[in-house]
Every structure is written in structure tokens, then in C-alpha cells.
Write a structure and sequence with these properties.
The complex is a heterotrimer of chains A (306), B (332) and C (302). By secondary structure, chain A is mainly alpha-helical. Helix content of chain A is 78%, strand content 0%. Chain A has a domain of 172 residues: MetI-like (MetI-like fold, Orthogonal Bundle). Chain A is built from 12 helices and no strands. The longest helix of chain A is centred in the last third of the chain and has 39 residues. The radius of gyration of chain A is 24 Å and the shape is flat. The model of chain A has no long low-confidence stretch (mean pLDDT 81). Chain B has 332 residues and is an alpha/beta fold. Helices cover 33% and strands 23% of the residues of chain B. In chain B, the strands form 2 sheets. In chain B, strands 6-7-8-3-9-10-12-11 form an 8-stranded mixed beta sheet, sandwiched between helices. A 4-stranded antiparallel beta sheet of chain B has the order 2-1-4-5. In chain B, helix 4 crosses helix 5. Chain B is globular and about 65 Å long. The C terminus of chain B is likely disordered. With 302 residues, chain C is mainly alpha-helical. Chain C has one domain: MetI-like (MetI-like fold), CATH 1.10.3720.10. Chain C has 12 helices and no strands. Chain C is elongated, with a radius of gyration of 22 Å. The two termini of chain C are 30 Å apart. The chains are: A mainly alpha (306), B alpha/beta (332), C mainly alpha (302). Chains A and B meet through helix 8 and helix 9 of A and helix 2, helix 4 and helix 7 of B.
Chain lengths: 306, 332, 302
């Protein structure tokens, strides 16, 4: 078990290195620099600015400087907003994403799991076809379509919820989280349907029936653990998807999260912001996959013992 | 005599419909099981024996149709409501499946699985149930039973798992134990142990046993009555002696002959039954075994031979009238 | 855009498809697909849309790029020219939507092809060669898997400009990972199967083995995968367009149309709803078809 954990950790390091290096190289390989769009300056001043940000140094030096900083937790200053650091931007914007992403995932699990279980138990009935058809919509309609439609429906027409903006209050979380969760509800429901369906056809379930175990006990005690395994594996990429999906949600609902900062940074050649957010995303994905792997071992005793 | 049998099956048929075809897994099977006796059902894979058992407990798959009657202590099992069936399953009728690897839930500890019937049927508390379970594990000769209770199935050997399955089936003191090919997935030495165990169970607890197998050696030791099934029908039934020394159906004879004997000459060819098992969705109009039968007569292809008594409880479903078997003279 | 495609291709299908069945597997699968009413309906709807996308722009009297200043933002009407209405530059929405379908489908198919080609090659080589090369290649896949590709693609497109070719490459490069893994697993298990040994023993040479024995068995999975990748690619392209990073005006794709329409949602909802409906319909039908194919080729589903 410990060896398993260690091995997983070890793969994380080269992964992070690759992410950081790729991002770094891409940014610096592209035409144009961070200060190109600014007001035209005399060459001397431009040189000074570049020296201040170490942009005059050879590439490999910049690279190692950056790596060193990251290890100390410093993402550097923002090139765009001279008085803020990337860490500051992240600190301000990240909580927004965490809240919305968290609520979205919670909704995905709380709504998707029961739908999937019922669909599996009543295969090929209305309980199966109707929810599966509806959830397919969640997968087919992109978030940036669902978002505006939700706004149109709940904010503009019904006036139940605010249309966007952020003040940390619950009503402002609901619509974005709902829009974000739509495809995930669908994925979780379909995954659970397939997984539970497969488990219920296992010989050991037949055995449980032959022991006279009532159906609800079979589902909860015998089938749940193995059925959840694919869901747990899916949580890794799901969290990653929710995090990167925040980019769209923030644009649609006008939320001040780091997705917005990222897109702005990309458009404005704000290297450090883009790098910082990318590295953060990468680290989160790696961490989530790692956690998903660990919880996999909690569910499957064969991984745990020996 | 004249005591009502514990279990009486009459004309049970199980048919599955899939994609326009109907598969007749079991056709008009009848048998009786008296208290404290062992009934063996013999047949190759696909002969319908397992489906017969599942049908009795109401465990047939959703696309299967079961007809006929199965009386357990006088009450009808087929079509009974699920609550009634759940009371009987695991408590009055215990079942052991063929493959212990897959019959035990790999995600739950052994102890929980063994005590489950007690918790559900007898509503025992955990502590008492655990104690009972340990006793049961000891009774089936599992070493270190307390430790085993906390382990998971994959940590036990195949033989141990099968014994756990048997303990699980017996823990509520059922009146009938159904064992579906209990030794098939195990090595020979373990097989012997399991069989000894079954014999012990019958003697100690007086449990009736339905033993399903395709291994003739297993029956010789244990069975009071034997039913031979082929293509979903019973083709011969009788005592173990009837089947071994006085068999009357070509299929039974073929089964016996296909088992190599130590007394045979070295280098003698292994005898296999010619042909292939029939397609259960397209059974021939006459005897199902006819296409592979050495003694086939013309009328065998035209009508299904009925099951007729040939003395005592010995009955055969065959038009051929001569006694067969190893001692009888067989055409070369 | 998560690992959902892999989730659909579970080990059972992989195992089953590696059994050498020749043509009867396809016939059987095709028949099963026919019985799947949802998939058949989806296929028909899809076919209709494709036909319309091809034909309508050819026969309509309007084109997708000429503004008609007198007819800005007219609502859909059944009589009088503009069945779907016009957009904010007075262009006929019907034609634009049809062009949007064309472009989106084209991007979807081409990008999927790119990812399939890369993925299959990578996976087949890794699986067939085996050993440390295989480990290395799969390590690369593992690491790339963790890369947050949406940010990367955004960065790519922002930095290198919005041209369609780059978008194909970006999308294709990112989605080949799943299929590479699956193909590699398949190749590994196929490589050791008896029928390959038999073929070799009968004197069939290397390339022949690859083409006549390995490829047909891989085909099934590749087709399923491709059918399921196209919709996710289409959605991703729509997403890029929404961010302003996709197809350039005046050319349009469904994503661009949706993005434009989203801005006018309150005043002219049809500008969003109609292209969104088409986008959703196409993706929906593709997903159903993919599902149907999965079930048709999966032996366990009765």
C-alpha cells in the first residue's frame, strides 16, 4: 500500500516538470512579448523594463529562475497589472472556482448516482430510457449554451435568481454550479448505470439472492462498492474538467475567478499569469488523479491487501 | 414409505426467449427428494441442470419463463411472492454454486458474508452471529476460523472458499442443501475433501442434498437417487446402482464409457461421445440424443420416448430395449 | 472532454473484439444495430442534417456572408424568404446555420481522423514492439494525460493565430491519448494470441500479419471511438469559438453562431436557440450512434 502510494507520487514529479516546461516553452516560443501592446516606448526604457523582469536573460536562465521560484511557491508578478502578483490574483479568484466547482461536483454525485442506480435496476423501462435520454442532453449541449438559457429562464423570466456577478452568497452560486454540473450529472448517471448494471449481473449477486438477501440490501451492501469504482476513477478527470470548465462559466456568468484571469492573461501576453494558472491547473489535476487512485484502494480490497 | 417427499418437482420447463428464438433449457423435468436423502443430477454442460435449480428458487433470469410445479413441504415454489421465496432461500434451502471464486463477494469480508443469512433470517445480533459463524467454519474444517472471518475472499485458497460457501449455505440449518457442481472448479485432492464434508453433513445434520455434477465418480459415493439429464430432459433415473450396473439409456452408457478406467489396456483410445450437444432452440422432433446415439432406431427420430419405469424407481426414456453398460456386450 | 470515451470501451468489448470472427461479427453487429431503434433514428436525423447542410447553401438564394442592411435581426417567418430569420448583419440564418453545420462537422471529422491516426499508430507500435520502448511510449501518454489541455490549446491558438489548420492540429493532438492506450492494450493481447502464431507458422509475413489480422480486429474499436470523438471535438471547437478563438468571420461554425447568439439572448432568442438546437441535435445523434455501435459490438448485452 505504501509502495503503491510512493510510486504514484513519483510519477507526479516528472509530470509537473513536463507541464511547467511545456507551458514555459510555448509562451516564450510564440511571436511577440508581454509588452508589445503597450504604448510605444523608447528602446532604452524597453530594455530597462525587460531587465527588471529578467526577460533579457538567456532562456534557460529564465527557466531555472522560474522553477526555483515555483518551488518556493512564488509565481511571480503579473506583467499586465503591475501592482499585483500572480499569487495575489490566484488567491482572490481561486475560492470562487472552488466553491462553484465543489457545488457542481456535489450536485453531479447527489443527482447522478441515484438516477444511474435506478436506471440500472430497471433496465429498459421508462426509468431507464427517459433519464438516459434527458442526461444525453446534458452531454450534447455545451455549457455556454446551457448557461445563457438558464439565465434566460431563471433570472430574466422568473426572477428567481440573479443573472450573474459574485458576492459569495448562495443565490449567485446556484446557476453557475448548475450549468457546470449538467454534463457531469449525465456522465455520472450513465457511468453508474453501466457499472451497477454490470455488477448486478455478477455471480456473487446471484449468490446473495440465493441467500435470501432482500433487494435493497443487495444494492446497498453488496453492489455499491464495486459499482462505485469506475465513478471514483472518473472523479479524477471530472475534477480536472470542472476546474478547466470554470473558464467558460466565468465568462458566461461574469464571475471573478482565475479562469477569467487566465483568458485575459493569454490575450494580453501576461506570461506569468498564464504560466501560473496553467501550473496550478496541472498541479490540481495531478493531485486529484492521485487522490482518486488512493480512494480506489479503499474500495477494492484486492489492491489494499497484497 | 408413503411419507410425502420434502421436495417434489413436476413437469418443470424453463424457456428463454432471446431475439426471436426460444431456447428450451429445461423440458418437463420431474423428480422427488425425500428427507435426509441425496439426489444427484448428472449431465454435461448445457443439459439444463443448473437452470433447473435456479428455477426452483425463483432465480431464473428475467427473460426466462418457468412452468410446472415445485412443491416444497407441500407449498408451491414457482410463482410464489418474493418475500416468501426470500424466507426460504438461505434459510430452508441453502445453495452452493460451482465457482467459489465468483460466488463470494470479493469486496466484503468473509465474516460478513457468512453471518449474513443469520442476520437477515434469524435477526441475530452481530456478536451471536459471529460466534455461530466461527463454529460453522470449524465444522467445515477451516483452520483459524476467527482470523478467516476478517479476511477477504481473495486471501483464501479455492478449497477454503468452497468450504466457506458451504458453511454459508448451512448456517441457518436448512433442510435442503443444493450443491451445483461443488467440486468442478477444484483440484482432485480438494474435491475429495469437499465430498467427505458433504457426506459428513448429511450424516450429522440430516440435511437432504441435491448434488448436481457431470462427474460420475462423485455420485457413486454419495447418491441415493440419480437423475441423468440431457438437452433439458431427464433421460434416466434410478438408484446409484441402477445407473452404474444396470443402465438403460445410451447416453448414460456413453458417460460411463468416456471415463477412462485404470483397468483398461494402455494405449486404448479415449472414448468420446460422437457429435455435438444439441442446439436448445432447435431441438429435433424425436429423441434429443438420437443424432449422437449408437443404437438409434428409426422411430427415435420421429417421436420423443417417454420416461418409463423398468423396475423399482429405475426409469428410462429410450426406445431401445436392451440393458446396456460395461458388463453388457457392446457392439465394437 | 474527460475520460468518458474510455469509460465506454470497457475491457469486455476489447476482449471480445480480439476474437477472430471474420465477417460474421460485422454482420451480427450490423443486424443488432438495425434493431436499436434509437440509434437508427439518430442515424436518420444525422443523415438528414448532413444532406441539408450540403444541399441548402447550394439552392438558397442567400449566402452566408453578404450583409443586408435593410433586414437586420428579423424574426423567423415561414413565408417570405428567411425561414430562420436573419442575424445582426442581416444575413440569412438558415444558410449560416447550414454552413455552420458543414464547418463543424468537417472540423469534427478531420480532427477525429488526426487523433485516430496518431493514436492508432502510437498505440500499435507500442503494443507490437513491446519492451522498454512500449514503457517509454506509454509513460509519455500518462504524463500528457495530466496536462490541462484546455489552457494549452487556448494558449496555442492565442499565440499562433486563429487558423483552421492549427485548430485541427491542436484538437487532434490532444484527443489521441485515449485511443492510443486502447489500441496498445489491444495490440498487446492480440500479439500473443494463437491465431497470430498460427499465421506466422503458416508463413504469413510481418506486414501481412499486421494488415490482415491485427487491423480488422482493431477496426471495431477504432470506429466506435471515432464516432464518440467527433461530437466531443465539435463541442470543443464550439467552445473555442465561444471564447473568440475559433473560426474567423465571416466564415462561421455552429460554435460561432451560438456564441454570437448568446450575446443577443434577451432580445432575439432565436439567434441562439436555432444554432444551439442544431449543435445539440448533431452531438446528440452522434452520441446515440456511438452508444448503439458500442452495444452492437458488445457481446454481453442481451
Amino acid at each position: 500500500m505504501i509502495r503503491y502510494t510512493l510510486r504514484r507520487l513519483l510519477t507526479a514529479i516528472p509530470t509537473m516538470l513536463v507541464i511547467i516546461s511545456l507551458a514555459f516553452l510555448l509562451l516564450h516560443a510564440a511571436p511577440g512579448g508581454p509588452f508589445d501592446s503597450d504604448k510605444p516606448v523608447t528602446p532604452a526604457i524597453k530594455l530597462n523594463i525587460e531587465r527588471m523582469y529578467h526577460l533579457d536573460e538567456p532562456l534557460y536562465k529564465q527557466y531555472f529562475r522560474y522553477l526555483g521560484n515555483i518551488l518556493r511557491g512564488d509565481f511571480g508578478p503579473s506583467y499586465q497589472y503591475r501592482d499585483t502578483t500572480v499569487n495575489g490574483i490566484i488567491r482572490e479568484g481561486f475560492p470562487v472556482d472552488i466553491v462553484i466547482g465543489g457545488v457542481a461536483l456535489l450536485a453531479a454525485l447527489l443527482i447522478g448516482l441515484p438516477i444511474g442506480i435506478v436506471a440500472a435496476l430497471r433496465r429498459n423501462s421508462a426509468w431507464d430510457h427517459v433519464p438516459m435520454g434527458l442526461t444525453m442532453i446534458g452531454i450534447s449541449v455545451p455549457v455556454f449554451v446551457i448557461g445563457p438559457i438558464l439565465i434566460l429562464l431563471f433570472a430574466v423570466t422568473l426572477h428567481w435568481l440573479p443573472a450573474g456577478g459574485w458576492d459569495g452568497s448562495l443565490p449567485r452560486v446556484i446557476l453557475p454550479a448548475l450549468a457546470l454540473s449538467a454534463p457531469y450529472i449525465a456522465y455520472v448517471a450513465r457511468l453508474m448505470r453501466g457499472s451497477m448494471g454490470e455488477v448486478m449481473n455478477s455471480p456473487f449477486i446471484l449468490m446473495a439472492r440465493a441467500k435470501g438477501v432482500p433487494e435493497h440490501t443487495i444494492v446497498l451492501r453488496h453492489a455499491m462498492k464495486p459499482a462505485l469504482i469506475p465513478i471514483v476513477s472518473f472523479l479524477g478527470p471530472a475534477i480536472a474538467g470542472v476546474i478547466t470548465g470554470s473558464i467558460v462559466i466565468e465568462t458566461v456568468f461574469g464571475l471573478p475567478g482565475i479562469g477569467r484571469a487566465f483568458v485575459d492573461g493569454a490575450l494580453n501576453r501576461d506570461y506569468t499569469v498564464v504560466l501560473g494558472v496553467t501550473v496550478l491547473y496541472g498541479a490540481l489535476i495531478v493531485a486529484c488523479n492521485f487522490l482518486a487512485d488512493l480512494s480506489y484502494s479503499v474500495l477494492d480490497p484486492k489492491v489494499r491487501y497484497r | 414409505m408413503a411419507q410425502a417427499p420434502l421436495l417434489a418437482a413436476r413437469d418443470v420447463s424453463v424457456a428463454f426467449s432471446t431475439r426471436g428464438r426460444v431456447v428450451h433449457a429445461v423440458s418437463n423435468v420431474s423428480f422427488e427428494l425425500a428427507a435426509g436423502k441425496v439426489l444427484a443430477i448428472v449431465g454435461e454442460s448445457g443439459s439444463g441442470k443448473s437452470q433447473m435449480l435456479l428455477a426452483m428458487l425463483g432465480l431464473t433470469a428475467r427473460n426466462g419463463k418457468v412452468t410446472g410445479s415445485v412443491l416444497f413441504k407441500g407449498a408451491e415454489l414457482l410463482g410464489a411472492p418474493e418475500e416468501r421465496l426470500n424466507e426460504i432461500r438461505g434459510q430452508q434451502i441453502g445453495m452452493v454454486f460451482q465457482d467459489p471464486m465468483t460466488a463470494l463477494n470479493p469486496y466484503l469480508p468473509v465474516g460478513l458474508q457468512v453471518t449474513e443469512p443469520l442476520l437477515i433470517h434469524k435477526r441475530m445480533d452481530r456478536a451471536t452471529a459471529d460466534k455461530r459463524a466461527v463454529e460453522m467454519l470449524k465444522a467445515v474444517h477451516i483452520s483459524e476460523p476467527e482470523r478467516r472471518m476478517r479476511q477477504y475472499p481473495h486471501q483464501l485458497s479455492g478449497g477454503m472458499r468452497q468450504r466457506v460457501a458451504i458453511a454459508m449455505a448451512l448456517i441457518c440449518d436448512p433442510q435442503i442443501l443444493i450443491a451445483d457442481e461443488p467440486t468442478t472448479a477444484l483440484d482432485v485432492t480438494v474435491q475429495a475433501q469437499v465430498l467427505t464434508l458433504l457426506r459428513e453433513i448429511r450424516e450429522r445434520f440430516g440435511t437432504s442434498v441435491i448434488l448436481v455434477t457431470h462427474d460420475l465418480g462423485v455420485i457413486a459415493e454419495l447418491a441415493d437417487r440419480v437423475n441423468v439429464m440431457y438437452a433439458g430432459k431427464v433421460v434416466e433415473e434410478g438408484t446409484a446402482e441402477d445407473i452404474f450396473y444396470r443402465c438403460r439409456h445410451p447416453y448414460t452408457e456413453a458417460l460411463q464409457r468416456s471415463v477412462p478406467q485404470l483397468s483398461e489396456a494402455r494405449g486404448a483410445r479415449l472414448v468420446a461421445i460422437a457429435g455435438n450437444p444439441p442446439d436448445l432452440s432447435a431441438l429435433p422432433p424425436g429423441c434429443s440424443f438420437a443424432p449422437r446415439c449408437f443404437y438409434r432406431l428409426e422411430k427415435c427420430d420421429k417421436s420423443v420416448p417417454p420416461l418409463e419405469s423398468v423396475g423399482g424407481i429405475h426409469a428410462k426414456a429410450c426406445f431401445y430395449e436392451v440393458q446396456l453398460g460395461r458388463e453388457a456386450v457392446t457392439p465394437a | 472532454m474527460s475520460g468518458s470515451v474510455v469509460g465506454k470501451l470497457d475491457a469486455a468489448i476489447v476482449e471480445h473484439l480480439s476474437a477472430p470472427r471474420g465477417r460474421s461479427l460485422w454482420q451480427d453487429a450490423f443486424l443488432r444495430l438495425r434493431h436499436n431503434r434509437a440509434a437508427m433514428v439518430a442515424g436518420t436525423v444525422l443523415g438528414t442534417i448532413v444532406l441539408a447542410a450540403l444541399i441548402v447553401p447550394l439552392i438558397s438564394s442567400y449566402n452566408y456572408y453578404t450583409p443586408q442592411w435593410a433586414l437586420l435581426d428579423t424574426a423567423p417567418t415561414l413565408h417570405g424568404g428567411h425561414i430562420f430569420g436573419t442575424d445582426d448583419l442581416g444575413r440569412d440564418l438558415l444558410v449560416r446555420v447550414m454552413w455552420g453545420c458543414r464547418i463543424s462537422l468537417m472540423i469534427g471529422i478531420v480532427a477525429s481522423l488526426v487523433s485516430v491516426i496518431i493514436g492508432v499508430t502510437w498505440g500499435a507500435v507500442a503494443g507490437y514492439v513491446g519492451g522498454s520502448i512500449d514503457s517509454l511510449m506509454m509513460r509519455v501518454v500518462d504524463i500528457l494525460y495530466a496536462v490541462p489541455f484546455i489552457p494549452f490549446v487556448i494558449v496555442l491558438v492565442v499565440l499562433f493565430g486563429r487558423n483552421i489548420f492549427l485548430m485541427f492540429v491542436a484538437i487532434g493532438v490532444v484527443s489521441w491519448l485515449d485511443i492510443a492506450r486502447i489500441v496498445r492494450g489491444q495490440t498487446l493481447s492480440l500479439r500473443n494470441k494463437e491465431f497470430i502464431e498460427a499465421a506466422r507458422a503458416a508463413g504469413v509475413r510481418g506486414p501481412s500479419i499486421v494488415f490482415r489480422h491485427l487491423v480488422p480486429n482493431l477496426l471495431g474499436i477504432v470506429i466506435i471511438y471515432a464516432t464518440l470523438t467527433v461530437p466531443s471535438v465539435i463541442l470543443f471547437e464550439a467552445f473555442l469559438s465561444f471564447l473568440g478563438l475559433g473560426v474567423q468571420a465571416p466564415m462561421t461554425s455552429l460554435g460561432v453562431l451560438v456564441s454570437d447568439g448568446a450575446g443577443e439572448l434577451q432580445s432575439y432568442p432565436y439567434l441562439l436557440l436555432i444554432p444551439a438546437a442544431f449543435l445539440a441535435l448533431i452531438v446528440y445523434c452522434l452520441n446515440f450512434l456511438g452508444d448503439g455501435l458500442c452495444e452492437a459490438l458488445d457481446p454481453k448485452d442481451r
